[in-house]
Structure formats: C-alpha cells, structure tokens
Design goal:
The protein is of the alpha+beta class. Helix content is 17%, strand content 36%. The chain has a five-stranded antiparallel β-sheet with strand order 1-11-17-13-14, with no helix packed on it.
C-alpha cells in the first residue's frame, strides 16, 4: 500500500494530565499546580442582547483539567446574566460547549458563584455573556490544573509513540489526519476502498495520462463517497459511470487525498484510550531496549494491550 501522510494529528487520544494520573506523577503542591486566568474581567457590564459584546479572553487548556467560574456580584434591578462556555481549536473559530451554559443569574442569586468543569478536547476556551434589562456586575475565571514535571516533554513523546504503535497494530488512523493514497491502476470493481477507517472526507481524486497531464475527478459526478463509520470508507462509481480508460502515467498515476480519523479525543473508544495508557506506561518504565528470550526488542506490547485492541483492528486488505 503506497500512502503518504501530509497532515499529522494535532491532538492525541489521551492528554498529558490523564497520563500523569495513570502514572501517579506530580511534582507540585495543589497551590503550585493550579493557575487562575481571567476570561471576562470583573466589573459592571452594560445591557447587551447578544453573546458578542461581553466575550472573555481565550485561555489555553489543551491536555489540562480546567474549571470555569462565573462570579456574579450585583445585578441591576430586574437584570439578568446568561453565560456560556465556548471552545476553539485555533482561537478564531468558536463553538458553544455542549452543556456549557450556566444557570441564569438574577437578583435572587447574584452572589452565588457557579462553576463548570470543561471536559472537551479543544485547545482554547472562553466565556460569552448576555446581559438584559439592567447593567450587572460579574466576571469569569478559568482555573487550570497546570501541573508540570521535569519529564513533561518525555511524556509528550511517549503519548505520540503510543498512538503510533496503536495505529500500526489496528491499521487505522485514530485522530484527524490527511493522507495521499497512490494507485497504479483503476480497479475492475466499481469502488476503491480507502485505508485507515473513519473516513471524514475525500479532498480530491486525480489521475495522470501517459503524457503526465493531470485530471481531477468531480465528487458526486464522477464518484460518490461512502464514509462507513469507523470502518474503511469507499469511493464508488455512480450508476452508469466508469473509471477513466486512458493509458496511465508509469509512476503514481492515481492520487487520492483524504481526511480520516475521529474528530475529537472524546470520540476515541475507551478501550483504545486504555490501551494507550498501558503502552505509555510500558514505554515510560522501560526506557531502554528490552531483552526477551535473548532477543532485543524496543517495545513488546503486553497481552492486555493486545486484548483491548483486538476488536478495534481493521482487517481490510490493500495492495
């Protein structure tokens, strides 16, 4: 199978905080671990019937535990405050967090501090608030468990290595990544199977004729896309269509670029996350080559890892 990864994953199936909890690693006191950040500065905020006027500053939380606090002080007569948590991968495009809305603040509860734990997997979070009837005094903070150890960089490398080990064992891509799949010829079947499972989309299907002239096929006209859940997706010919019949270029004449993998760490099955934590622990504890039956190995997957991943493996055959 001739493939090339062009965009690697930007998130991992488990966070460094989860790994530290699994390994029971912590080098700080509770006070030293916690870091407080202001999202929306405390003060009197004017009436605004939208969630774009009173928007907080982004706080980076990826790989860390985080709790968001809404701190009301005083509502004006009849005033109400509606606040919600938003999340983003890039700090530019924001979406509301599911179940991230706080209880509405009124005069009756305007001295009650509310908190919500952020359990998502995005890089940034912030708050957005709407104020009605009268100006209200409040602010929002984000408390981050930012524990660090001298081995954080090592642990990050082990997380990546464990994910790559699992991808090799399962023959699948775990989290969003982009690949190019090269074929030497069009199939005799009316479909082309795409490797690695969890097909999100097909970016392009291109082919070169014998002169090297490249043609890009059109989705929904020249081919259809089947994503097929966590199994291998397919490119399928529409009814009455056929693959190009021209003589093909001698080297990598057909290129299929596609995006695959689960879109968030939360969607990765727990058995795969559990296997990742065990593999990371193995890599962390055994930092040198292991000698088993006089054979030197850099990594030997334990039986529990293999059992956890047994049903997650893709068995599709590719040339």
């Amino acid at each position: 199978m001739n493939v090339l990864q062009t965009v690697a994953p930007t998130i991992e199936p488990v966070s460094i905080a989860e790994v530290k909890l699994h390994l029971r690693l912590d080098s700080e006191t509770l006070a030293g671990n916690l870091a407080a950040y202001t999202s929306l500065a405390a003060g009197s905020h004017a009436i605004a019937n939208n969630y774009t006027t009173h928007v907080g500053t982004a706080v980076e939380v990826i790989g860390k535990q985080a709790v968001v606090y809404l701190r009301p002080v005083n509502n004006g007569a009849g005033g109400t405050v509606d606040t919600k948590i938003q999340e983003s991968d890039d700090g530019t495009t924001w979406t509301d967090v599911t179940s991230g809305a706080f209880t509405q603040v009124t005069e009756a509860n305007d001295t009650t501090i509310q908190e919500k734990e952020y359990t998502g997997a995005k890089r940034y979070i912030r708050t957005a608030s709407k104020v009605l009837v009268a100006a209200c005094e409040f602010g929002t903070d984000v408390i981050v468990n930012a524990a660090t150890t001298a081995e954080d960089s090592l642990l990050t490398d082990k997380i990546i290595a464990a994910r790559e080990i699992i991808e090799d064992i399962c023959r699948r891509a775990l989290l969003t990544q982009t690949w190019k799949y090269y074929l030497d010829k069009f199939p005799t079947d009316n479909f082309i199977k795409i490797p690695f499972g969890n097909l999100q989309s097909v970016t392009s299907v291109k082919w070169k004729d014998t002169d090297g002239t490249e043609t890009t096929l059109t989705e929904n006209t020249d081919y259809l896309v089947e994503t097929n859940g966590d199994q291998c997706g397919r490119i399928v010919l529409p009814y009455g269509e056929s693959w190009p019949s021209s003589t093909l270029y001698p080297s990598k004449p057909i290129t299929i670029e596609f995006v695959c993998g689960w879109t968030t760490a939360a969607l990765v099955p727990y058995k795969i996350k559990a296997a990742a934590l065990l593999a990371i622990a193995d890599l962390y504890e055994n930092r040198e080559a292991q000698t088993i039956n006089n054979s030197t190995l850099t990594y030997q997957a334990n039986k529990t890892v293999e059992l956890l991943l047994a049903s997650a493996r893709l068995w599709d055959v590719f040339e």
